[in-house]
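Appendix B. Raw example, untouched.
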Amino acid sequence: MHPHRLTLVPAGDVHLWVPRSSTLRAFATTAPDPRPVTPDQERRLQVAGVPRRPEDEVNPWIGMRATLHGADFVSFAGTLRRFCARHESLRCMFVRRDDDTFERRIVEPDMIGFQPRHLGHYDDRGEAFDVVMAELDDRTGPLSWPNATVLTVTEENGDITVFAAFDHVTFDGYSAYLTIGELKQHLEAELNHAPLPAPVGSYVDFAVEQRAVQSSITVDSPALEPWRRAVDATGNLPGLPRATGVRRGDELRHRLRFPTFAGPKLSEAFRLWCDQHRAPQPLAYTAVLLRAMVAEEDDDRITVLMSTHNRNRPEWHKAIGWFSGVVPITVDLGADLPLAEAIRRTAQAWMFGKTAETVPLPLANRLLGTSMRPATVLSFMDSRHVPGREDWEEMDSTVFLGEVEPSDEMHIYINAMPYGTELAHRAPDTPPCTEWLDRVMGRMRDQMVAVTRQVNDPMEALA
């Protein structure tokens, strides 16, 4: 069973959308693009090339679901073409060279085409769920084009619901939210016979910039210092907080949850408090989370990895790609520390950690001779202002994730939504770890109530 609880797979006709033969011929005959892949992409492609065991169902894709009212097969095929036309990175195929490195092949928008392949009619939603999830797991990967799997379920009333899973090689979490809004936009353009959309800034150009910067980094570069300070005596990063019950080296199955720990009234009151105290919300929420984590431990110091979104140019703000990265931050937060001071210390740690945003973890390990692996990874995203957000409810849309390998890691995503604030997390599925997360959410909520004096309505948000 998948770690998410996806209950919105309707009964109906299931179709898999595959590239036309003309599109595949275009990729086969296109000359290599000179622009390089990023180190993260290179590593992902190398890992994907290792043969998987037949019983291995783990596939850590990033997925989304949305219902497109008014679409038919012709207009949906055009919608997919428009989506790829807008984002150069989605028209990119990776090909292994003889020396085991990878090159890009990119085709022009007018060469992109998709067609449906009927997989069957399913009156039972459970059967439809199993078919859709099996296709997403079996087909999604970085070594063929597209680096994604797209299926539709056509209901009896004619509505088409899209299920798509993207490999991380060309996608990150924010890309999933952008995609939902774009699908409706492209469908409307297709129905109105509008020209193909102009491309936005390309992730492929971001890769060029990243390679250029990283090629100049040496063991003496200041950008390496946050990683140097974060590594422990074993050459690794500190593991999960001890109260989780998870220890370094554990191989534990993960569970994905999306609890809303603060309702809309409390979330809005906290936003106003942040404005009054000139505290950026991402840092304020991060400080609240870190304080809650430290309160469970005997040590006031905590080291985590923080996500960096890296869309640092206007032309990349709406671009699809693997822009996100991680940097280490270490901060001292006593249990009795005022929240404003905790935010200040978190901001200071973040500013220092962010100096390492051009040094991906594999490069840091190579330069330092270490074997650092992620443990606690935190991220903040304000999804209230993602382009197309106003259409999510009408589209019954959601974002979900594929299953990951058993490990000793935990990924926590603070997500500001219109209905409140989520603490989405993918964490080891053990009772001590789940109970720890529930306590942390309670402590976060208590901190927000204490500074805002806004009582959280338990009917609005239940952790």
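End of appendix B.
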